[in-house]
Design goal:
about 90 residues, alpha+beta, two-stranded antiparallel sheet, 2 helices
């Protein structure tokens, strides 16, 4: 996304989720958070679309349309939400 920032390790979680066609994601994920206040400059060879949305909007979209998100994102989001800017710790 064309920027760098300091990252803080905030956790590890294990998940196992069927993802269709007989496939299962079974992973141990390390979670990191960081902050950046500029405007991302996505490399068009790597990113076709991106959007900046409020945490509350992501929560609403997860509730209303969870299948719009990958299995790992749905699993990881609740773990990182407390560490995102503007969220109570």
């Amino acid at each position: 996304m064309g920027f760098s920032c300091d990252l803080r390790h905030v956790g590890i979680f294990l998940y196992r989720e069927p993802v269709g066609s007989g496939l299962i994601e079974h992973e141990i994920d390390h979670l990191f958070v960081g902050t950046f206040s500029g405007t991302p400059e996505a490399n068009p060879d790597e990113v076709c679309e991106w959007d900046r949305v409020a945490v509350s909007a992501v929560v609403q979209r997860l509730f209303e349309s969870p299948d719009e998100f990958t299995a790992w994102f749905r699993a990881a989001f609740s773990h990182v939400t407390p560490y995102l800017p503007g969220q109570p710790l």
